Amino acid sequence: MAQNGYVRKRRYKIKYKNLAILLAILLILILLIARGCSALFGKNKDKNKDLDNEPLVTGDSQQQNIPLENVPALDPATQYYYSFTYEDKTSADLGEGDLVLVNNNIQYLGSVNEDELSVVRELKNNAYSVKDYTVKVRPEAMNALNEMLLAFYTATGKDTIMVNAGYRTLEYQQELYDDDLASSGQNSSTLVAKPGYSEHHTGLAVDFTVYENGKYDQSKLGNGEYTWIDENAHKFGFVNRYPKGKETLTMIDNEPWHYRYVGVPHATVMKNYGYCLEEYIDFIKNYTIKNGFLSVNTDDGSQYMIYYVPMSGGDSTSVYVPATDKETGTKTYPYEISGNNVDGWIVTFLYKEGDGTAVPPVADEPDVTEPAEDSQTDGTETE
Ligand SMILES: [Zn+2]
């Protein structure tokens, strides 16, 4: 009996030991799974958390370099949902579109038909004022301007913004440039772009000032309640084109009054990742039909896909655009093509509308979405 009792006791001991090892293994497994899950979901849930250790871009603590792997992209396989068609583009088209990059080294290649520009003073709402009837912008920028400054007024109660510049001719830019050199005594300007190299030639840029109690005060921009514009401009497709800390890239001093229209999805990426236009135009080259699209969720709940098509060696480049959903053959994606004014085209298409309705690929929706209808709610659009 004593022996049996001993043996039994010993067996229990071994059992407990096994159990302890089992529990330990289980605990390790649970820990591993939990870690794996938080790594998987944490990435999408909290982008900033992943970026804490990323180096800061010069000067501004708000702006961070985002490594490519942290930016959402579609798996290339999902692109076979679409059938593509193409538009032929030539180098003469490089300067056409909302994403043209123009700076001191890159001359504007596009052209503006002045008759098609919007006279801001004629089309503006009462939330702001305009210097005079010479201030003109492209129609897409006109709509965005009205919406943005109305929202600024709604948020702050201020109707003190004055738009004092828009489209500029070469001749006028020459005058401004000469005046700046004369007043500074320098050979070149860090404030006024060379003629042909100004964003104001595109019809997509505006300069603001503050007009209050009979006085102009541009220095109020970027301060106090006026920071609202910098914080919210992306929701309307505008970016502060010459931000603090990016002077070496933009080659222009910080100008809190100069805003550039690029379109909502692009302004959203630039805002979220702290990119100036020079950086963004470079960054977008990582996304192609082959590599996968850049997926962008905008503030209104829409989802856009963006990709780059480099200019090919020959005279013309086939810029592929999603034609229809393969399943139904009838769904179309509203899309836009813009040249980057340097070496290729950027395609943007609406994948999901703001109300959460998936455009294709969903088989049971017979409606065909008309291109760009969704983003142009204002009747003043003429293009
Ligand atoms: Zn300007």
Question: Care to describe what's here?
Answer:
β10 (294-297) and β11 form a beta hairpin. The chain has 9 helices and 14 strands. The strands form 4 sheets. Strands 3, 5, 6, 7, 8 and 9 form a 6-stranded mixed β-sheet that branches. It has a 4-stranded antiparallel β-sheet with strand order 10-11-14-13, covered by helices on one side. It folds into 3 domains: 2-45; 67-99 and 274-383, Phosphorylase Kinase, domain 1; 102-261, Muramoyl-pentapeptide Carboxypeptidase, domain 2. The chain has 383 residues and is α+β, with helices and mostly antiparallel strands. Helices cover 30% and strands 19% of the residues. The longest helix has 44 residues, at 2-45. The protein binds zinc ion. The site of zinc ion has 5 residues, from β6. Residues 165, 200, 205, 207, 258 line the site of zinc ion.
In short:
The protein has 383 residues and is α+β, with helices and mostly antiparallel strands. It has helices spanning 2-45, 47-51, 120-123, 139-156, 170-184, 227-232, 247-250, 264-273, 277-283; strands at 82-90, 118-119, 129-130, 136-137, 161-165, 205-212, 215-216, 238-240, 258-261, 294-297, 303-310, 316-325, 335-339, 344-352.
